[in-house]
Amino acid sequence: MTRTIPIATLALTLLLGSVVSHAQAPVGFELALVAVDGTKTVLGQLPASVYAPRISPDGKRIAFETRDLSGADGPRLWTAEMSNIAGRKPLPLVVGQINWAPMWTPDGDRVVFIVSGSDRPDAVYWRRADGTGDAEHLIDTRAAEGWIAGGKQLRFLTLKESAGNRDYGIAMLDMASHKVTPLVDLPTSAQHSSAVSPDGKWMAYASNETGRYEVWMEPLPQTGMRYQITHDGGSHPMWLLDGQGLYFDRDHQMFRLALNMKDLSSRVEAAALPIKGFAQAEYRRQFDLMPDGRQFLMLFPVSR
Q1: Are 208 and 190 in contact (CB under 8 A)?
Q2: What is the CA radius of gyration of the chain?
Q3: I need a surface site. Which of 86, 143, 175, 209 has the fewest CB within 10 A?
């Protein structure tokens, strides 16, 4: 079941993760590259309504959304060269709707995104990243999360109402047959922020089934086995390029966790990285990892 949220409430919730007072909201965000050693390089400043920038596969462009319902930046999608953030360009709108949550296709030619409105269910569309041509509908669902098999299959979120909570699950759309296959969906809890290992054999994701978010893993194809990877909290996992570990965040700090791929039931302690203070709410991941695996693209709040 798809949940419809008033547009104004949706924008605030997605941006901040919860309702906060206007005095607490930042006036903007610095967009920065942050190396694993904590070295920070500011690329530019973006409006306070920016959310979840995503890096193109070639590492040269970003896509992001702004959610300002009244200002010049409007609720829409943008692309920009990494070398010229101020020169960002808006993508055409699916008219009359909020367009948000961009994600690149593996070849970098298209941007996948969500279309939402008060008079329709959420749906996933895609369009050419240069803005030419029409946007095309893919599936009615909550959000796209990533790809499997080099773009042949799309991972996406499902959403059910459960006692007033967000009960997310993860499913897969075969792009050729349009067949939908559920991957993980545990009742009365949320699973999201899925990430597939570089070799395509494992899927990591966040789940709050224990009462707080932890990182879990399971093999692909699925066997019924699942492994809890963190035990002190963790969310929004991303794979190291060698497939032998994960990055994740906890309480606005990044961590790196080396995995024992021969015995995932063994407990391994995560190492804290000197990366703190970046923007991140409960649900959608607001940071991204550069293709070289050595730098994060992050948003840092700018105070008044």
Answers
A1: yes
A2: 18
A3: 86
Left (φ > 0), alpha (ψ -120 to 50) or beta: where does 178 sit?
left
Other CB atoms within 10 A of residue 15 CB:
22
Cβ pair 144, 127 in contact under 8 A: no
pTM of the entire predicted model: 0.89
Under 8 Å between Cβ of 270 and 253:
no
| CB of 203 closer than 8 Å to CB of 195 | yes
CATH class of 7-302: mainly beta
Three-class SS state of 30: strand
Closest CA to 46 of 95, 79, 11: 79
Neighbours of 138 (CB within 10 A): 18
What pairs with residue 158 in β-bridges? Answer: 169
Which amino acid, residue 30? E
Residues in Cβ contact with 231 at an 8 Å cutoff, skipping those fewer than 6 apart: 214, 267
What would the two tokens of residue 226 be? Answer: 């699942």
Read off the pLDDT of residues 11-64 as tens digits, 9 standing for 90 and up: 334 433 433 334 467 899 999 999 999 999 999 999 999 999 999 999 999 999
